[in-house]
Request: fold
Amino acid sequence: MLRLILLRHGAAEPAAIDGNDFDRPLTRAGRDEATAAGRRIAAAGPAPQLVLTSPAVRALATAELAAGAAAVDAARIRQDAALYPGAAATLKTAIERGAGGVQCLLVVGHNPALSDLASRLDPAGARVALATGGFHCLDLALEDWRLP
Reply:
């Protein structure tokens, strides 16, 4: 059994006038959302053994705050450029490529890709719509990270 936790970044500042989306920082509320998500992830156990995150400023900050709140060592956070902005298919590929050897993986990224992948993998067939700072936990009856 593998556990996949998909976490959408916390609320971020609006894009700059120049349209720069990548460097948008978290708002105060976004930092609070990320920390709260990490606490809820820790309470749900087990702790993630690896965190794959988009390198976008808001996603990386969310990963760092959530990992800290979940008592996950910062050395276990790995940035993957394929997660920005991402699509469900690129997330799936990044997970399959980067998660070898772990039983519990936290992926931090962006919508609509995260919600699309969560919906696709949800065993009950639920339509998942992740809010900022929201996460979806999937227990997958798989031997390895080759996702369906």
